[in-house]
Write a structure and sequence with these properties.
The structure holds 2 protein chains of 2 kinds. Chain A has strands at residues 5-7, 10-13, 19-24, 31-37, 44-50, 53-57, 65-68, 75-79, 88-95, 104-105, 109-113. Chain A is mostly beta strands. In chain A, the strands form 2 sheets. In chain A, strands 2, 4, 5, 6, 9, 10 and 11 form a 7-stranded mixed sheet that branches. Chain A has a 4-stranded antiparallel sheet with strand order 1-3-8-7, with no helix packed on it. Chain B is globular. Classes of the chains: A mainly beta, B mainly beta.
């Protein structure tokens, strides 16, 4: 296991189209997080899973966004009816359950909505 | 409302000298703090962390200092190396979700 893997690395889509991203976390990690990063800013929390349960969602996560983590393994993040404001780097991270432990990030998916 | 602030967007340091990156926070509920390093086109990489019950943590060339009364933390890199050139993010954790709240980052450039 070489770390957190995200696919695709880059996605260009037309406004109004739906897109889906995939994240494969480090296998023994039971927590999985999605973050979004725009230019000049730090990553912003979107949502997190503990095993297969989605336990928290940020108010940044509009109704057009949905995330799943079936069977507590990989996760998908879908954006419906994309808008230009959705253009960003989408980062996935995973960690152990323990209270104070670092999260390990994937390389991210760069989304460009044209 | 930015709960974690990095007020210096950039910092340049000569190779071999000390780099000091600063971070301020406003949320008293933060109980764990981390520094991440990010190279272009890569995800953030964990560097070092500190619990709110400590005031210093050291790992090789990297030391993080926490001043809870001032709500301030800093990362010291000694000696700085050209490979340290990257964007450094300060992050803080609170709550049961243990999600990270990031600052906006500081671009460190170490000059040979």
């Amino acid at each position: 296991d070489t770390g957190v893997s995200q696919n695709p690395r880059h996605k260009i889509t037309k406004r109004g189209q739906n897109v889906t991203f995939r994240c494969d976390p480090i296998s023994e990690h039971n927590r999985l997080y999605w973050y979004r990063q725009t230019l000049g800013q730090g990553p912003e929390f979107l949502t997190y899973f503990q095993n297969e349960a989605q336990l928290e969602k940020s108010r940044l996560l509009s109704d057009r966004f949905s995330a799943e983590r079936p069977k507590g393994s990989f996760s998908t993040l879908e954006i419906q009816r994309t808008e230009q404001g959705d253009s960003a780097m989408y980062l996935c991270a995973s960690s152990f359950f323990h209270k104070n432990t670092e999260a390990f990030f994937g390389q991210g998916t760069r989304l460009t909505v044209v | 409302d930015q709960q974690v602030k990095q007020n210096s967007p950039s910092l340049s340091v000569q190779e071999g000298r000390i780099s000091i990156l600063n971070c301020d926070y406003t949320n008293s509920m933060f109980d764990y703090f981390l520094w991440y390093k990010k190279y272009p086109a890569e995800g953030p990489t964990f560097l070092i962390s500190i619990s709110s019950i400590k005031d210093k943590n050291e790992d090789g060339r990297f030391t993080v200092f926490l001043n809870k009364s001032a709500k301030h933390l800093s990362l010291h890199i000694v000696p700085s190396q050209p490979g340290d050139s990257a964007v450094y993010f300060c992050a803080a954790i609170s709550g049961s979700a243990r999600q990270l709240t990031f600052g906006s980052g500081t671009q460190l450039t170490v000059l040979p």
